[in-house]
Every structure is written in structure tokens, then in C-alpha cells.
Amino acid sequence: MGLLNPRNLAYLASLAVLVAIYLRARAKPTLEVSSLMLFDEIAAPVASSRVLRTDLMFWLEMAALGALSMALAGLYIRSQTPAAHHQARALIFDLGAGMGAREASGTRLDEARRQALEIVAAAKPGDNFSVIGYALEATVRRAPTSHLADVRQAIGELKSAALPARAVAMRAALMRARGTAEIDLFADRAPASDLLNSAGAGTHVRVHQVGEPAANLAIVALEPGTVGASPGRVVVRNFSDRPQLCEVALDLDGHNLLSTTIVLEPRGQTVLPFGPLKQGGLVQARIVTDDALAADNSRWAFAANDKPDTALVMSPSPEARDDLARVLLAVNQSLIVTAIDPVKFDLAKAPRYRIAVLNDADDPGINAAARLIIYPPPWLERTAPPSWQLPVTGTVAVAEMQERADGEQLSQPLALSPARILSLPAWMDVLAHGTGAGSGGSFPLAGFGYDSRGAMGMIAFSVNDHMLLDPDKLEALVLTVEMVKRLLAPQDLQVVSTGGSVSVPAVGVARIVAPDRSVSEARADEMGRVRVRPIEAGRYEISSAGAKAVIYANYYDAGESDLSAVPPAAASSAKATPETAAAMAGRAATQVKPIAMWLVALALVAMLVESALLTRKAMRWRVRDV
Amino acid sequence: MLEARAFEPDFLRRLDGLVLGVQRSRTVREGRRMLGRVQGLGIEPESFKEYTEGDDLRFLDWNAFARLDDLTIRTFRAEREIEVSILVDASASMGLPREDDKLGFALALAASLAYVAMASNDAVRLGAFTAAHGGTPRLETSALHRRRESYPAFRTFVGTVRASGATQMAEAMGRLLLMRRPAGTVMLISDFLVSASDYEQALRSLLRARHEVKVIHVLGDRESNGTYPPGHYRVRDSETGELCEVTLGATAAETCRRRAEQLSADLAAFCAANGIVYARAFGASHFDDIVMREFPRLGVMR
User: Fold this and answer.
1) Class of the domain covering A309-488
2) What is the pLDDT of residue A578?
3) Which residue of B has its CA nearest to A25?
4) Looking at the domain covering A83-213+565-587, what would its CATH class be?
5) Where are the domains of chain A?
6) Burial of residue A104, with CB atoms counted within 10 A of its CB: 0-12 exposed, 13-18 middle, 19 or more buried
């Protein structure tokens, strides 16, 4: 029982008014009679000693006012509705990386699967089940069906992904299950109760928390360093409350570079330096020690060769030229950077660059393997822009970065400098979104793609005034560094994070081999690419028409990798045994039922009864005013 | 007002067949002959007796003396003209409860009885008695009317009667007796919400004056049933101004009803013991039934 609008309880003050009216009516009227002889045997009035004289009318009016006040306050009850046949139920599974943690009898997901199958087995004939999974987002794996074989099959096909289970995804899953009589949520960590209440919309949500606390080690980061120049480092973290022995191996293009064993402090992390590498290539760091979660035990990084490459930074602002040159050298120290003002640039004498960064400058047709266009100026309307020019449709004085390419909403919008609004070509992937004063909604702040001339990146905001070195705008620097890394990475080898979308050049139908050796196919779009979204940590191989590209997907999430959380007692007691599952299937479900209509009906009945009593009184006592 | 009902032609036509239930003739008893030598003046012979000294020679049966040589006195049934006085209590208590229209009810009964009495060409008068707040009793009477043609004259009198003042029944009857009218029939219509001693004294004084007395006890529907609006009241006596607090409701109604029944029974018992016709007329809503059925049944009318 509760109140939806407790503020409206103020209407209960009307009861005080009613009492005041009755107190006022306490003054006795005088009745003139023919003779007191007829009244001399009537007992003295008992009510004369009372403070408040109440009668049936008073209580009826009290009931009517009270009922109306409670109706306005939104009184509701939690009722137990008996489980009926054809009950609709939803099975929601956490498919985050944590559910893939190994335990004695399988993974956490296996345990959840087993409990769910017991619930399905105990279902009454005609019961509907829907199967919903969530990690980064919620997906309905099986629409509501009474065919239990299909439900079991859908449960059996569930797989945990190397992704963090996001709260918004769980909320979305709960919202998709609205309307069902009961929701069974299987997760390895207890969700917040307010989240369940708000998203469940009154439907009873039974949480099945699976998994026991487990020790886990994870590679947090892998920095290959600069070939021949600076050392790299591996960051390893222990999520256990006890010291852990950890054997770490480091490979370069499949050849072991390093194997070492370290002791990690409880809940501590260690930086393991290595190198500098003598040559570039694919670097893989591995935790060889067996632990609960495998997805965060490997990490890949690409180390560029130390072959000197030329880079061009062209910007009218000397500060911006200097900042961008620093960024390029930070990513690859072997680059030979030429920083120049656009007006002094001579295209005829320019060599082929490995990368060209153009800030607030038109591209005169620079010959470069990769180009990064920053804050492009709008093209003059008197002449037609070249085909490689990105069309600028507007400018905002202040832009705010709202979202990064990995789909994560920034904790708070990042205020940036002025930005161009560009209409990105279809072959570019948007890596960041933003909004700005004077613009209609969201527009891309960063994009990346491949055209006929090579890799091309776009950053829409201005980097003048040392904005990249502003510690309050670190996201802008991170975005720029990531963009440069992408531009310098080979096209057929990409190292990405799981959950992100990756475009790979392809022709016709592409064959995709996932890390678990499962094979799928995707048709290339009109831009000659297929989009792959890695959800498993490891190597993806995309092959089409003789061309082959490889994607290495890294996974790490501090929250998801921490498997040491102890399940609360209530949650652990909710584990379904065959008996309890059978009982649960037939058990009543709790539902919130507003009873405003009943309260209004009660008030009406009270008023009708009072009216009837008054009418009867008028007829019986033959008086006009009662 | 209900008294108008007694002057409606339709209602009066229904009364045409009724006569007043009075003891019209009286035998002049031997033992009393010496007192007033009252001889019956009727034409209907009653009996014969021997002449004794002092008998009125006008009633000597000369034919019998001629045939039988006996002095025989012929006696006749007295054919008297009855003087009917119908007195209505016009105290303040008769005006309450207002919904009951008790005074109008009493006046309607009085007028109806007067109309019936005039069928026999008896002399009829209406009267209303009350007492001023100072305590002076007051009795107002109409003129005597004998013929029905003059019945509408009562309407004027009835229209002037208002309920006010206290009830001093014995004093009012004393005023009537001071008129020194011949003994007749006195009909007393009242709610009798006075002390028993008061009405007993009043009725006894009438009996002593050799009046034939009929009592019509009038109460309203509401007060006879106690059906007052429920609630907590301060009730005030209309005549004495006395106050008391009561809680009215179903229980109080039952108590009131019992109390009215008890007062009625006490009065009826007194009347029965003293040869007085007692008729109960509770409830103006039953006016027609009371006049057409109850009064003939109780002997008030025939």
C-alpha cells in the first residue's frame, strides 16, 4: 500500500472542516412543544456531555471526504494476483562479460540458463515466455511464445559477450518486458532496486543473482611504445582480495618477446615495462595464469615500424601547428613532421606524406596516405569545391561534445571551441557527436573512413588557442590521438575495443571468422565496406574477393571484470530449485493497483446512503429541512 | 386550515344522516316532583297514575274519570329542547405542533358536531376558552343557533379563534356555569394537556350542573406518535415556557407515544367512572374517519 501523490493528502484537511462544522452544530436548537407532559419520561440527553456529537451522517461524510482525499493522493495497494493460465513471463539475461566467468560447474551464464530452464519446465500449459538479453543494449532473443521448445532453444543459444552490461541496457530490457505478469532477471550482480521499480512499472521482478565471488586478473592497458625509441608497458590488475601470482607473456607478431611472473597485491595493479621494441608489428599481451574471466586476459596493440615517414601539419595558426606536431610525434616518434602555413605551402614541391593534418585550411590536393581535416573552412560559393572537400554547412560559436564513437555518453558535455557543421559522406563513420548554439540538434564532431585516396579523418572543432593542451578538455586530445592512431594504422589491421563499430574494405560478400571460430557472412555496401561490431575479445578475420583484413578486439571494463562482489543473502536465496521453481510458477504475482476508482465509488455510495437517510428522515418525520 | 373542511358542502352532505347522540328525554321522577313539579310537556303519553293532592289538574284524564269515576293523572314523556354547548380549548398548546393543526382539527370537529346538532333544531353554541397570561380565564361563545340555515354563522366565530394563553379548564367551566343556562349537553374538545385535577374539577362541575358531558380528546399526529425530527433539542412548553433538554429519536418517540396513551387512558378512566362519553380524536389526518365512524361508534353521534 502506498501513495502516488502524497502531497494531495493535504485534502484531508477537509475532515477538520467537517469536524468544525459538527462542533458548530453542537448548539442545540429550541423546539417549542405543546406541553412538556409528553416529554417528562424521556431520559436526559447523553450527548450533552460529549465534546463532539457524532452520528451516522457524520461518519458517512467522514468516509466520503476521506475516500476522496485518499483517491486524490493516489492510494494504491499491492495485490497478489494469482497466477493464471496463459501467464506472460519474461526471462531477462545479463550477457555481459562477467556472465562468462568460469565457475566449478561452468560459467555464470550456464547457471542462469539452468535456473531459467527449471522455471520453464515448471510452467503451466499455455504460459508464454519471452527471452531478452542485454549487455551494451537490450535485444529480444525470443518473442513471447508458448512453445517451450523454442524458449529452451533460445535460452541455449545465449552467449555472453566481451562487453560491459550497461544499466541503461538493463532498463531497456525491463521496459521491453513490461506487460508481462512476472519478470525473471538473471544477472551476476544485483541491480539497483530503484532501477527495478522504475523500469519494471509495477511488474514483479524476481532477481536471480548467479555466481560466486571469484578472483580475476585483467590486462588494463597495453602501450607498445615507439619502436627503437621508447619502451612500452603493460598494466595488469588484480581484482581479488588476495595476492595473486600472475604470469604475463608478451608476443610480437606471434613470437614471444617476454614471459614473466609477478605477484599482484590485493586489488592492486602493476605496470610491467618492456622494450623498446626493435621492430614494429602486432603486439599481444597475455595473462597465462588461469583465472575466472578469459576475455580480459589478452590485449593487442599495433606498433608502427621505425621507418621514417613524413608528416605534414598545415595550419594558419602557429600554436595549432605546434600542438598538432606534438601529437603526431607522441603517436609515432619516427615521423618527420613538416609544419607550415597554408599560404607558404607549395603543392608542386610537396612529397608524398604518410599523413597530412590540415587545420583550418583547404586541401589543395595534397598527396598523402592519410589525411586529417580539422575545422575545415567553408568553401567559397563562387567556385565549385573539389570532390575531396568535405562540405561545410554551417558554423557554431561553441560546440559541446555529447557522445563518443563507442556509444558512451560523456558524464557531462565537453565545451569546445567553435566548430563546423559538416555533411559527412556515407563512407565515413561518425566517431563523436556534439551540439552547438544555433544548430538544429546533433551534428558530427569527428569522422573516419576510407576513400579512393586513402584514410581520411575529420575533426570539426577548432584546435586553436592550445585547446589540445588544455587539461580541462582532455577528451578533445584523446579523440585527436585516437584519430591519428587510426590514420597511421594499416588498413588491413585494426585494433579496436569490443562494442565499437568497425568498417572494413570489402567486395561482394565478406566472410567473417569470429574469435570462437564461428563464421558469418556480410554483404559489402555500396561504399565497398562491411561493418563489423566485435563483441568478443580476440581476432576477427574478414575476407572477401581475395582481400583479407584482420580486426583485433580488446576488452576491459573495470566494473565488469571485478568478480569478487559477494551476492546479497536475499538474492542468493532466490536461487531456483526445482521445487521452488515449480512453486514460483504458480505463485501469485505482486501488482500495484491504484484504487482511486474504488475510493470514488465508496464516496459516492456514502453520499447516496446519506441522501437516502435524509430522504427517509424527511418522510418519516415529515419535515422539509433535515 | 382544517376548520374550513367543516364548511365544505360535500362534507356537510355526508353529515346529513347523522344526529347528535344526546339523552333527549327524561322521565320526571316521582321523588323529584316535589322539587319543581316538573311535568313532561311532550305529546307522547308515558303512563297513568292515581291523582294525589298537588298534581296538576291540567293533566287529569277527564275521560277516564267520566267512565271509571277514578281520578287519574296522565303523564307524558318530556320532549325537551337541548342546549348544546361545544367548547374548544384555545390555549397555546392547541397550536402546536404547527404541522398537526390541532386547533383547526378541534374547530372542525366542533363545527361538525354543531351541524349535526342543528339537525334536531337544538340550540347550539360554540365556545372557545383559554386564559390570558395574567391568569384571567376567558370564555368566548357564539350566539345560539337552532336552524341549519344559520350554520354558516359559525364560520365567523371559528375564524376568529386563535391558540394562545394557558389552559385553565376548571375556571373556564366555571364561567360557563355562571351563564345559568338550563342543563344541556356540553361537549369539551381539548388536548387535555393539563393536570388531571384541573380537568377532573372542570368535568365534575359540569356534571353537578346536570349537564350531559362529552369529552373529545384531541391530539396531533406528531405528538401522539412522538415523531419529532431526531436530534438534540432544548424543548420549551408553549404555555408555561418551561425548558428542558432532550434527545429525540426513535426511543424518545416511543416514550412520547406511551406517555400520550397513558394520558388518554387516565382521562378515559375518569370519564367512564363519571358517565361521561369519551372520544379520542388523535390525528387530524383521520378527521373524516373520526367524524363518520368513530363518533357514531362511541355514541357521540348516531
Assistant:
1) alpha beta
2) 39
3) B232
4) alpha beta
5) 2-80+594-621, 83-213+565-587, 229-304, 309-488, 492-560
6) exposed
> From the CA of B116, how many Å to the nearest CA of chain A?
30
List of residues 6+ apart from A223 with CB closer than 8 A: A232, A233, A234, A301
**A24 touching chain B per CB within 8 A:** no
Looking at the complex, report in whole angstroms how far the Cα of residue B14 sits from the nearest Cα belonging to chain A. 30
The three-state DSSP-derived secondary structure of B86-142 is EEEECCHHHHCCHHHCHHHHHHHHHHHHHHHHHHHCCEEEEEEEEECCCCCEEEEEC
For chain A of 626 residues, list the mean pLDDT of each consecutive stretch of 10.
78 85 72 83 56 75 90 79 68 89 85 90 84 88 87 89 85 83 85 70 78 86 82 89 88 88 87 86 89 88 81 92 90 86 87 90 86 84 64 79 61 76 80 73 83 84 86 84 84 82 81 89 80 88 84 87 65 40 48 81 92 79 54
ipTM of the complex model? 0.77
CATH number belonging to the domain at A492-560, selected among 2.40.50, 2.60.40, 2.40.10, 3.90.1070: 2.60.40
Are domains A229-304 and A309-488 of this chain identical in fold? no
Q: How far is CA A486 from CA A188, A371, A425, A448, in A?
A: 35, 11, 18, 8
Q: Rounded CA gap, A170 and A273, in Å? A: 39
CB atoms within 10 A of CB B50: 9
CA nearest to A258, candidates A243, A228, A278: A278
Cis peptide before B182 (omega within 30 of 0): no
Looking at the domain that runs over A229-304, which CATH code has it been given?
2.60.40.10
Q: At a CB cut-off of 8 Å and minimum separation 6, what does A351 contact?
A: A310, A367
**pTM beyond 0.80, yes or no:** no
A33–B236 CB contact, under 8 Å: yes
Provide the residue ranges of all domains of chain B, joining segments of one domain with +: 2-23+81-298, 30-76
Name the fold adopted by B2-23+81-298: Rossmann fold (3.40.50)
- Residues of B with CB below 8 A from A48's CB? 232, 245
